[in-house]
């Protein structure tokens, strides 16, 4: 099986590639802007006909699209998260219409959740900002493409290698900078929100299962931890791992926290459908993910 991973050097893509390397009989191809890529492609810029030519040459049986952007202005987000999947689908229809497409979406597409009620795939989508809106546009492009495709709506990934552009990686970086001393002060933003955190290694396992599952899959599957966790608990968990003895100050003007807390105070995904379709459930707890994140960033 020839499997092409787009965005293979990113946070999610790196873990998907690592998981695929254990898959017997898989020929792995990497696509992206890295010099190590088998396919040099930038989904935000490439023309559909150029990408179709590259895909025809690669002849993938499956494409896993991990390419995406979580930061930047609305134009940047739209180019990567909305245009990218649309161009990919157009190119696949021309060059490899029988290939399966596994696209990584985001739980941010749902928008605010109702406290105590996990959101299912049939729930209304009401994203509150450019990130969620552009990810939703990418999902629509995939689900309307007519391809053998599935979108995995991923919760808040956490675990080894988490980048500082996301909340868990940012908190870990601040803790390393502050040090464990009792005089240290961590000034953070609003930590009152609840989020559905999922270990990045479980996300990678879900992507590989979706790539190799026989027969058609539902158009959208939620991939999350299946429970709403206070962001405050994540911060406290990382602080304990860091043996942080200083003071944590929480407010509305700190340097870290949940930027969307005021608009999306509660998120939790119902992950039952992924269990039925893929036989998938999270294998790692949040404590596992936080420990792997913290240990992975230690200097030798």
UniProtKB/TrEMBL annotation:
Residues 3-224 form the NAD-dependent epimerase/dehydratase domain. It comes from Streptomyces qaidamensis. Belongs to the NAD(P)-dependent epimerase/dehydratase family. The lineage of its organism: Bacteria, Bacillati, Actinomycetota, Actinomycetes, Kitasatosporales. InterPro entries: Epimerase_deHydtase, NAD(P)-bd_dom_sf. This is NarL family transcriptional regulator.
